[in-house]
Structure formats: structure tokens, C-alpha cells
Amino acid sequence: MAVQEIHAEMVSSVWKVFVAPGAEVAAGDTLVILESMKMEIPVLTEHAGTVGELHVVEGEVLQEGDLIATVTS
Questions:
Q1: pTM for this one?
Q2: Where do the Lipoyl-binding domain residues begin and end (predicted)?
């Protein structure tokens, strides 16, 4: 059982959340969309699995490196 941690790559705000803890996801699925400098940035899973924890809510401001979610495969 591998756990994938998904982190913010830049300072941004959470525009839209697409998953909840316990959701099944496929490789390449969008977990959330971040907004930075009027650009929408989808955050994708690398591997299929189950969303273990979701650490963000819509409207939240993230700093580079903040944990967004964990996915267990």
C-alpha cells in the first residue's frame, strides 16, 4: 500500500474541490483546481487509488508546499 502526498506547487487559492475522502480516483483525475494570477491550475493524481485525506476547502489560500490531499493505492 503506497501513499501519494499531493502538495501545492505555488502560492494559490483553492477554486474548486472535486473529491471527498473515500472517493476512488483514476490516474490523471482532477482532485482540485487552484487559482493563481487569474490562471486555473488543475491538480491531478499520478496513480489510481482512494482519497485518504483532503486537507483543503474551497476559498482557502495555500502556500507553496502545503499538503492538499493523500491518495492510497
A1: 0.92
A2: 1-72
**Residue-level pLDDT, tens digit, the chain, 73 residues:** 899 999 999 999 999 999 999 999 999 999 999 999 999 999 999 999 999 999 999 999 999 999 999 999 9
Going by their DSSP bridges, the two strands 49-54 and 24-25 should be labelled as antiparallel
**Cell representation of residue 29:** 483525475
> Which grid coordinates belong to 61?
489560500
What is the torsion angle, in degrees rounded to the nearest 10, for the CA atoms of residue 64, residue 65, residue 67 and residue 73?
130
Q: How far is CA 8 from the centre of its chain?
A: 8
